[in-house]
Design a protein that fits this description.
Layout: E1 2-3, H1 13-25, E2 30-34, H2 49-59, E3 63-67, H3 75-84, E4 90-93, H4 96-104
Parallel strand pairs: 1-2, 2-3, 3-4
Helix pairs in contact: 1-2
Length: 105
């Protein structure tokens, strides 16, 4: 499933649960989210929104790639993304093709 945008930008654990349910309904556990679908709150480490959403998706076994531009991926958020990119369930990419390649491997 590829989420390019959202009428209401995603930022809560309930949003992550909705995404996990959507994946389950479509019998897939691969998800690609573009940064335009995420709230600014997601990128602010102090809010814990990213960590909470990511953990929920991992708990439900949803392999998730988020595509974000370089200008967003900086500071403390970049530190978190570098750590998350070491795992098997969640990665951040600047390029859609690389994200898709990782999801399909």
């Amino acid at each position: 499933i590829e989420l390019i945008s959202s009428a209401e930008p995603l930022k809560t654990e309930n949003d992550a649960l909705d995404l996990a349910a959507l994946c389950s309904e479509h019998d897939t556990y691969m998800l690609m989210i573009h940064s335009a679908a995420l709230s600014r709150v997601f990128f602010n480490i102090k809010t814990r929104a990213a960590g909470n959403m990511i953990q929920k998706l991992i708990n439900y076994g949803v392999r998730t790639a988020v595509i974000i531009p370089e200008e967003i991926n900086r500071g403390r958020f970049k530190e978190m993304s570098m750590e998350m990119n070491k795992g098997r369930h969640f990665r951040l990419y600047e390029d859609r093709e690389e994200a898709e390649k990782w999801l399909l491997q």
